[in-house]
């Protein structure tokens, strides 16, 4: 008897140990995160990932960013080829909506953490009827102007509140000659559109009101509120550095951080980049886009910019959802907003931030009416693409190769060529 | 009847690796692209549309404006290469083959080195040299009192494309130089000696003896330049980005294709129109090469030594 039992027992023990070993190995799941934020690599590796992994043993996170300009193309090819990561960083609006409609992104409406976000925060990652949400909102960025406080003190200037004051300040800096009044170039085009047009525009088209009117077709791009920002941009030309036509985005950043320029038309994402680069050589301040006339309500672009979704084809949906729940928590919001000053949490729970410049930016949420970039929702769905056309138009207007009226006219024609509500 | 020769299997076996690899990575994708250009997505369904995409590319005012703009820029890009790169290449080769030149090996290497550099490095280095802020070009012009001549060339619509073409010329002038240099070296000494006995020396010797002998090489270089230029993409993409600014003044077929096929920023990629542009590029290059083969190469006189 014993002779026959022992081998069976041994086999059973062996089998059990292999099974146990197998499951123990399988529990250590690695989730890959696709992202365009290659600037954030160290923050993910040093702060975000360790915090999550400590609380969730058995799940490993691998943050694998690609270059921002190539991200959309790379991600689409990877998703089509089935080699994309488990978690996908979502661009706002149509780029992600398209992925969801093609079944590449999973429906996350059922995620408990979604309750932590307002409807506006979620709007960038929902179907048009807001029935389904497919990415967990992470952060928004706010536009405004960062200025060199030390230079302003030196020249006896105060941050401008109105358009007239703004140009008076620029004129004074120019007359003094020590500093380049404003650091911006037109080579990369998106600077002109994003930091120019979308930055100052909401004050003229009255934020959400104008944006919604444009989508509804009750207002057109040739109307005064949409041409006025171009008129202002055309005047910027005289206050930019020598050879701004060939000045790239990194050139502009360096001009400002080296203390050679007084004002930098900014997105709040620069805060985290500028701080360490300046290293205390001078003090920075920020002011919201100047309003057309004293006493006008101010509007700011508080653009829902970044979210995290799940690859519908992931092999580890449970673990990915666990991570997404954590991303939706206030713990993550605090961690992220402080690790990346300038990326403001969209979480409904208020987040305490340490960076004074970031605090300044976020305080405008109280004093001004927030809106999102006008071209992002719905209006960039067709060909020609309104956002991309706006890049070229803004750069042309600043370069002086197209008048504000001609640029607006061209944009309107392009939009009306495919967008039905604008075709009356 | 003579005995039938056995089928020579070894020929097929030896050809197989090259044929298979070439088919897999060149022929199949080529026909895949041609095929893709005949389809489009209509109401979510992929349907055969025949030549509809080409009609859109050439008939729709927007598409055709972009297409002709890219083609025109591409033609100018090619023209600059033909007018600058190849004559300079020939001149350099002629100088290098002069027996009285010292340090020929050094010059040869120095001029050829940019050719082996990556586009990314060339694009970045020139962008930096020409940068109005950090570049050394404004400083150097200032040193000789010509600062007024400096302009942000890469940022102006009128000059950006020509500047890029000249950068590309700088990078690739080594190729025509090497090919012509090799052709010049193959001219037998007897021919040169005979010319000298007949009193043909110096420049006359170059124009009347050497140039006719290297014409076939110049022909080959022209066609290589043509194919290379109409397939160009990298340099423009690296220096000006996919939007080929300012205001599409440096947009060539390659960047136009990239933007359309892969999409850009909020613009979602359109593989069908992209394939249509790729097919149009293929047709343009094919026409150019055919023109060369049938109209020029056949009439070219060859000399046998």
Please give a structural write-up:
The complex is a heterodimer of chains A (424) and B (305). By secondary structure, chain A is α/β, with parallel strands linked by helices. Chain A is built from 18 helices and 10 strands. Chain A has helices at 2-27, 41-55, 71-81, 94-101, 119-122, 149-154, 163-176, 190-200, 202-205, 207-216, 224-236, 249-257, 270-278, 317-327, 330-339, 356-367, 386-399, 404-416; strands at 29-35, 59-65, 87-90, 135-148, 180-182, 261-267, 284-287, 299-310, 344-345, 369-371. In chain A, strands 1, 2, 3, 4, 5, 6, 7, 8, 9 and 10 form a 10-stranded mixed beta sheet that branches. Chain A is globular, with a radius of gyration of 25 Å. Chain B has 305 residues and is mainly alpha-helical. Chain B has one domain (37-304): MetI-like (MetI-like fold, Orthogonal Bundle). In chain B, the strands form 2 sheets. Chain B has a two-stranded antiparallel ribbon. A two-stranded antiparallel ribbon of chain B has the order 3-4. The model of chain B has no long low-confidence stretch (mean pLDDT 90). The A-B interface holds A 69, 72-73, 76-77, 93-95, 98, 185-190, 241-248, 251, 254-255, 375-376, 380, 383-385, 387-388, 391-392, 395-396, 399, 401-402, 414, 417 and B 62, 127, 130-134, 138, 151-157, 240-243, 245-248, 262-270.
């Amino acid at each position: 008897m014993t002779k026959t039992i022992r081998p069976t027992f041994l086999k059973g023990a062996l089998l059990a140990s292999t099974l146990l070993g197998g499951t123990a190995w399988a529990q250590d799941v690695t989730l890959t995160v696709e992202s365009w934020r290659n600037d954030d690599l160290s923050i993910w590796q040093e702060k975000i990932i360790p915090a999550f992994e400590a609380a969730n043993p058995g799940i490993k996170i691998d943050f694998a960013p690609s270059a921002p300009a190539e991200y959309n193309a790379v991600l689409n090819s990877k998703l089509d080829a089935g080699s994309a990561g488990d978690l996908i960083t979502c661009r706002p609006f149509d780029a992600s909506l398209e992925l969801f409609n093609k079944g590449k992104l999973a429906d996350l409406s059922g995620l408990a953490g979604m309750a932590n976000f307002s409807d506006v925060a979620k709007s960038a990652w929902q179907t048009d009827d807001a029935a389904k949400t497919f990415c967990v909102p992470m952060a928004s960025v706010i536009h405004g102007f960062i200025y060199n406080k030390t230079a302003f003190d030196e020249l006896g200037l105060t941050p401008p509140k109105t358009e007239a004051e703004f140009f008076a300040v620029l004129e004074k800096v120019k007359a003094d000659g020590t500093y380049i009044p404003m650091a911006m170039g037109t080579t990369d085009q998106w600077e002109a559109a994003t930091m120019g047009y979308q930055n100052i525009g909401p004050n003229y088209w009255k934020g959400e009101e104008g944006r919604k009117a444009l989508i509804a077709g009750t207002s057109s791009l040739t109307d005064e509120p949409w041409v006025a920002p171009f008129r202002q941009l055309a005047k910027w030309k005289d206050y930019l550095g020598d050879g701004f036509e060939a000045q790239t985005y990194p050139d502009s950043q360096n001009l400002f951080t080296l203390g050679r320029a007084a004002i930098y038309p900014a997105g709040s994402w620069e805060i985290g980049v500028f701080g360490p680069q300046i290293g205390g050589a001078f003090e920075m301040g920020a002011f919201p886009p100047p309003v057309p006339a004293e006493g006008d309500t101010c509007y700011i672009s508080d653009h829902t910019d970044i979210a995290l979704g799940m690859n519908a084809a992931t092999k580890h949906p449970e673990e990915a959802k666990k991570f997404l729940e954590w991303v939706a928590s206030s713990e993550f919001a605090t961690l992220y907003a402080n690790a990346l000053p300038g990326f403001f949490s969209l979480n409904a729970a208020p987040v305490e931030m340490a960076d004074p410049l970031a605090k300044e930016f976020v305080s405008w949420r109280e004093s001004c009416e927030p809106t999102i970039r006008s071209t992002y929702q719905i209006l960039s769905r067709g060909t020609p693409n309104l956002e991309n056309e706006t890049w070229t138009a803004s750069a042309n207007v600043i370069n002086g190769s197209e008048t504000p009226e001609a640029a607006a006219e061209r944009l309107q024609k392009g939009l009306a060529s495919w967008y039905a509500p604008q075709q009356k | 009847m003579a005995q039938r020769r056995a089928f020579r299997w070894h020929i097929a076996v030896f050809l197989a690796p090259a044929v298979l690899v070439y088919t897999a990575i060149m022929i199949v994708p080529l026909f895949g692209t041609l095929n893709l250009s005949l389809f489009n997505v209509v109401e979510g369904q992929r349907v055969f549309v025949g030549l509809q995409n080409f009609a859109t590319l050439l008939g729709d005012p927007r598409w055709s404006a972009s297409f002709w703009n890219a083609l025109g820029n591409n033609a100018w890009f090619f023209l600059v290469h033909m007018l600058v790169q190849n004559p300079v290449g020939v001149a350099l080769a002629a100088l290098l083959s002069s027996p009285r030149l010292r340090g020929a090996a050094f010059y040869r290497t120095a001029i050829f080195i940019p050719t082996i550099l990556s586009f990314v490095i060339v694009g970045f280095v020139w962008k930096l040299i020409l940068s109005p802020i950090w570049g050394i070009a404004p400083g150097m012009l200032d040193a000789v009192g010509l600062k007024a001549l400096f302009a942000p060339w890469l940022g102006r619509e009128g000059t950006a494309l020509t500047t890029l073409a000249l950068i590309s010329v700088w990078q690739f002038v080594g190729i025509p130089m090497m090919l012509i240099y090799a052709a010049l070296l193959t001219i037998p000494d007897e021919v040169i000696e005979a010319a000298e006995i007949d009193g043909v020396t110096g420049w006359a010797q170059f124009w009347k003896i050497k140039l006719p002998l290297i014409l076939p090489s110049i022909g080959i270089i022209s066609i290589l330049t043509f194919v290379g230029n109409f397939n160009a993409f990298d340099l423009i993409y690296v220096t000006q980005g996919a939007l080929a600014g300012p205001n599409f003044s440096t947009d060539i077929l390659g960047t136009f294709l990239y933007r359309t096929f892969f999409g850009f920023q909020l613009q979602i990629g359109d593989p069908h129109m992209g394939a249509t542009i790729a097919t149009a590029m293929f047709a343009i290059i094919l026409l150019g090469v055919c023109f060369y083969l049938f109209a020029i190469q056949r009439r070219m006189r060859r000399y046998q030594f």
